[in-house]
């Protein structure tokens, strides 16, 4: 892993290696097997306080290593605990995040006696009911489905000691806060609570005041996280040429695993169709897809079966794929925070990644806002041609972007495809 960035963590002395963490040897073994050596800043900040049972607020987004930042203290605190009772609950906004957290839990806790179960909608209730009844020690759940189970009367939270609210702001966006409050009110009051959220809108601050006491704050500057390890580029392109330009970009040698963001489900479907028509192996993931379709699209992407995945924002929130080389914004997001979340899918855990945004003329104001928000000057390539005939973008230079030409770039003769490319 690359050098840790300096963030506004509160750790008094930097913890540079997991061996320095107050964690049981069997957990350090799990950490080692995951390939982690240095804790990420959120882990260095949160773990020492959380293993002591303190409440924690971490302003950190997916990609920061926050999942292990709450899983490791949970596992540590439950090491000597009796089995067969639910003792920790992690509430998470999406099924993908729930599945992912449960998978991490299985791996990190491999050398312990502790078991986890994931509870989420879109699949049958019965296997989840069995897991809840037999009392897996750690439950990872989406709020709506968990409430369904709770209403049936067999979920026993009397032994619960630890609650984690993961991606608080996203739970708010998705309208889950009332469910979350209902669930929390049915939990024992004597417990540790950890809250993770990329941003802290007023409703989340209120939630933390209502349910956390004297929390340790670990603040990660969101913009720093977004910028760390990611190189940003904009390509100025007419709206109706975006697919063509995208196809050109996908020819590049370095496009190994590419997540493409579209603004709407309809645009995502249309784009995936167009790419597949042109021979690109592509998956698509958005809110209208069934759970099975989403899992298949994600697994296919993860395994490299289709190295391009087209996604909408909500659907992509929980995506955790090692080694996404590029995030391409087919559409410029309206909110700078959305841009940050999108590019957070690449350069995960401080690796290197690239974010490329296709900017149509009418999207340039939104893109300028993003640039200001990030405090970066993002280089522009390509040019717009529509309206007043051939013209230059504000900072564009004509014909500089390889993707604005047809065919492969980087000096390969036109028409020559690279070996092993992802086309059929
Ligand atoms: P998260 O922010 O929890 O979704 O984690 C993002 C990615 O970083 C996941 O693929 C983790 O496996 C990975 N990761 C988490 N902690 C570390 C670490 N200390 N070193 C290297 N990778 C990590």
Give an overview of the whole structure.
This protein is an alpha/beta fold and 424 residues long. It has two domains: 5-219, P-loop containing nucleotide triphosphate hydrolases (Rossmann fold); 224-411, 3-Layer(aba) Sandwich (Rossmann fold). 36% of the residues lie in helices and 15% in strands. It contains 16 helices and 14 strands. The strands form two sheets. The protein has a seven-stranded parallel β-sheet with strand order 3-4-2-5-6-1-7, with helices on both faces. Strands 10-11-9-12-13-8-14 form a seven-stranded parallel β-sheet, sandwiched between helices. β3 (116-119), α5 (126-134) and β4 form a beta-alpha-beta unit. α2 packs parallel to α3. The longest helix is centred in the first third of the chain and has 14 residues, at 95-108. It is globular, with a radius of gyration of 22 Å. Mean pLDDT is 83; it is low at 1-12 and 388-424. The structure holds adenosine monophosphate. The site of adenosine monophosphate has 17 residues, from α3.
Give a short summary of the structure:
The protein has 424 residues and is an alpha/beta fold. The protein has helices at residues 25-33, 41-51, 66-77, 95-108, 126-134, 143-151, 168-173, 177-185, 202-211, 222-227, 242-250, 265-277, 291-302, 313-316, 336-343, 364-374; strands at residues 56-59, 88-91, 116-119, 138-141, 162-165, 192-196, 216-219, 230-236, 258-261, 282-285, 308-311, 326-329, 353-359, 380-382. It contains 16 helices and 14 strands.
């Amino acid at each position: 892993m690359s050098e840790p960035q300096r963030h506004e963590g509160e750790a008094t002395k930097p913890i540079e290696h997991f061996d320095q963490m107050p964690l049981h040897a069997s957990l350090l073994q799990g950490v080692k097997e995951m390939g982690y050596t240095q804790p990420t800043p959120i882990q260095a900040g949160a773990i020492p306080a959380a293993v002591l049972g303190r409440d924690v607020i971490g302003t950190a987004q997916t990609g920061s290593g926050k999942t292990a930042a709450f899983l490791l203290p949970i596992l540590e605190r439950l090491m000597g605990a009796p089995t067969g009772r639910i003792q920790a609950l992690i509430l998470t906004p999406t099924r993908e995040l729930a599945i992912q957290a449960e998978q991490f839990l299985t791996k990190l806790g491999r050398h312990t006696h502790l078991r986890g179960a994931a509870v989420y909608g879109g699949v049958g209730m019965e296997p989840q009911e069995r897991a809840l009844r037999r009392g897996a020690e750690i439950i990872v759940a989406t709020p709506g489905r968990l409430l369904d189970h709770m209403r049936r009367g067999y979920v026993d939270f009397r032994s619960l000691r630890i609650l984690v609210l993961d991606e608080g702001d996203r739970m708010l966006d998705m309208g889950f806060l009332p469910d979350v409050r209902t669930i929390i009110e049915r939990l024992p009051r004597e417990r540790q609570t950890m809250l993770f959220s990329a941003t802290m809108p007023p409703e989340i601050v209120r939630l933390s005041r209502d349910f956390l006491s004297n929390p340790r704050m670990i603040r990660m500057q969101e913009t720093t996280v977004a910028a760390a390890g990611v190189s940003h580029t904009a390509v100025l392109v007419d709206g109706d040429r975006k697919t063509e330009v995208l196809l050109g970009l996908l020819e590049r040698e370095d496009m190994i695993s590419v997540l493409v963001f579209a603004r709407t489900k309809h645009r995502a479907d249309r784009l995936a169709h167009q790419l597949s028509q042109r021979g690109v192996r592509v998956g698509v993931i958005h809110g209208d897809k069934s759970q099975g379709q989403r899992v298949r699209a994600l697994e296919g992407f993860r395994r490299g079966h289709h190295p391009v995945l087209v996604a909408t924002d909500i659907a992509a929130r929980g995506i955790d794929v090692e080694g996404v080389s590029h995030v391409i914004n087919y559409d410029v997001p309206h909110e700078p925070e959305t841009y940050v979340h999108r590019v957070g899918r690449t350069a995960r855990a401080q690796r290197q990644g690239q974010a490329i945004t296709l900017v149509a003329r009418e999207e340039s104001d939104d893109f300028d806002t993003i640039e200001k928000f990030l405090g970066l000057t993002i280089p522009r390539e390509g040019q717009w041609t529509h309206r007043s005939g051939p013209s230059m973008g504000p900072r564009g230079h004509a014909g500089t972007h390889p993707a604005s030409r047809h065919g492969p770039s980087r000096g390969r003769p036109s028409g020559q495809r690279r070996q092993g490319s992802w086309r059929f």
